[in-house]
Design a protein that fits this description.
The chain is of the alpha/beta class and about 400 residues long. It has helices at about 10-15, 75-90, 130, 135-145, 205-215, 230-235, 250-260, 275-280, 305-320, 340-355, and strands at about 1-5, 20, 25-30, 35-40, 45-55, 60-65, 100-105, 110-115, 120-125, 150-155, 170, 180, 185-190, 220, 240-245, 270, 290, 325-330, 355-365, 380-389. The chain binds S-adenosyl-L-homocysteine.
Length: about 400
């Protein structure tokens, strides 16, 4: 199948940007089905590359190669090999056995996420094209990563349109119930019932940084999920850690992860609560280290304004409730909120609180969530470590 662009619309692809917007397309040489592999041509007839056609949303094609190329088992194997080589350098060590192997556009595989938890790889398709390729992808994962990986779980049901009627399940191998290591800390991962693919692997570097600041502190880990930041803070010598999440499953899991590393008597408490209410109800300035890692407040561009208000509200609440000398780690994982906008919301929160606030660190996603220089939209995680007086 061939797709022809309107005059001048080849510019973005010549700069290796991987998206073709529907408005850029002049015609096709037949009916294009969602998920088809299509060849993309400039108006002058020059082949620009091949990609997956996409029916939903404004991105009509996601590019897989910028030249003629068959999209077959060899193609997937080559991409996975390159992705794995990078992770071996950037993340994998005897102390870390969980990592993101494929981060969409940044690994030349738009629409695909693969996270590895010990011997289990979790594949998540965000496009029909990747979903249709899932069996070939599982085969490629097996040939590139076995024996270290022994199972591939497909967790695409929630990331594809409901009309696809996708069901989660193992494409290869048996359930493993992984307990992984992250910088030497043990974390049990529930790939089937957990949020996203099981863990938020993108906070590994920031958790390490938080560990360095936590000695002797009263730590409040809001939006704790399975307690990643809590475990690091305890290892860093925190006097006490309080973990808060609205999900009872997450809170139980955080308690279990802490016990796995530090036993039942660790100075840790986990509470099911809304973080906004929890901060509002605090009567004394007890916590001198606070982690604010909320879910994406904006899932699409139209929601960015509301999201910024929510970031400001959350940060202002925290800034008002910490004692002098406190550290706040604050994050936004909303892709549609820029770093400048997020910093603007934290600035407004600081002003509202009238506290002295200094930026100690600007935080971002780790090296197994790389950003293609041609696709800056791939930067989504923004954070600040603040010192408050
Ligand atoms: N910091 C975590 C990841 C956080 S993901 C880590 O390092 O693993 C966001 C979490 O916020 C989810 O677990 C979700 O259940 C929780 N959540 C969403 N809204 C919330 C709210 N208003 N108050 C508390 N937790 C909330």
């Amino acid at each position: 199948m061939k797709i022809f662009l309107k005059p001048g619309k080849e510019e973005a692809l010549l700069r290796f940007h991987p998206w073709v917007f529907s408005g850029a397309i002049r015609s096709a040489d037949g009916p294009v089905e969602d998920g088809d592999v299509v060849e993309v041509y400039a108006d002058g007839g020059q082949l620009l590359g091949v990609g997956h056609a996409n029916a939903a949303g404004s991105i009509a094609v996601r590019m897989l190669a910028f030249a003629a190329r068959s999209i077959d088992l060899d193609f997937w194997r080559e991409k996975l090999r390159s992705a794995y080589r990078l992770r071996q350098q950037a993340v994998l060590s005897p102390r870390t056995s969980c990592y993101r192997l494929v981060h969409g556009e940044a690994d030349g595989l738009p629409g695909l996420i693969v996270d590895v938890y010990g011997a289990t790889a979790v594949l998540q398709a965000h496009s029909t094209g990747m979903y249709l390729a899932r069996h070939e992808l599982a085969q490629a994962l097996r040939s590139e990563l076995a024996p270290s990986v022994a199972a591939v779980y497909d967790k695409s049901a929630a990331t594809l349109p409901a009309s696809m009627e996708a069901e989660d399940g193992y494409l290869w191998g048996e359930p493993q119930q992984p307990v992984v290591l992250e910088n030497g800390l043990k974390l049990a991962v529930d790939v089937e019932r957990g949020q996203k693919t099981g863990l938020f692997l993108d906070q590994r570097d920031s958790r390490s940084l938080a560990e360095r600041y936590s000695a002797g502190r009263q730590v409040l880990n809001l939006f704790c999920y399975t307690g990643g930041f809590s475990a690091y803070a305890l290892r860093g010598g925190a006097a006490h850690v309080c973990s808060v999440d609205t999900s009872a499953d997450a809170v139980a899991h955080a308690t279990a992860n802490v016990a796995l590393n530090f036993g039942e008597q660790a100075p840790h408490q986990a509470i099911v609560a809304n973080s906004f209410d929890f901060l509002n109800d605090l009567t004394e300035k007890r916590y001198d280290m606070v982690i604010l890692d909320p879910p994406a407040f904006a899932k699409h561009r139209g929601a960015a304004g509301h999201a910024l208000q929510a970031y400001q509200k959350l940060n202002a609440l925290a800034l008002k409730k910490v004692p002098s000398g406190a550290i706040i780690f604050t994050f936004s994982c909303s892709q549609v909120v820029t770093r400048e906008q997020f910093c603007g919301a934290v600035f407004a929160a600081a002003l509202e609180s009238r506290r002295s606030v200094r930026i100690l660190h600007r935080l971002t996603q780790p090296a197994d969530h790389p950003i293609s220089i041609y696709h800056p939209e791939g930067e989504y995680l923004k954070g600040l470590a603040l010192y408050v007086e």
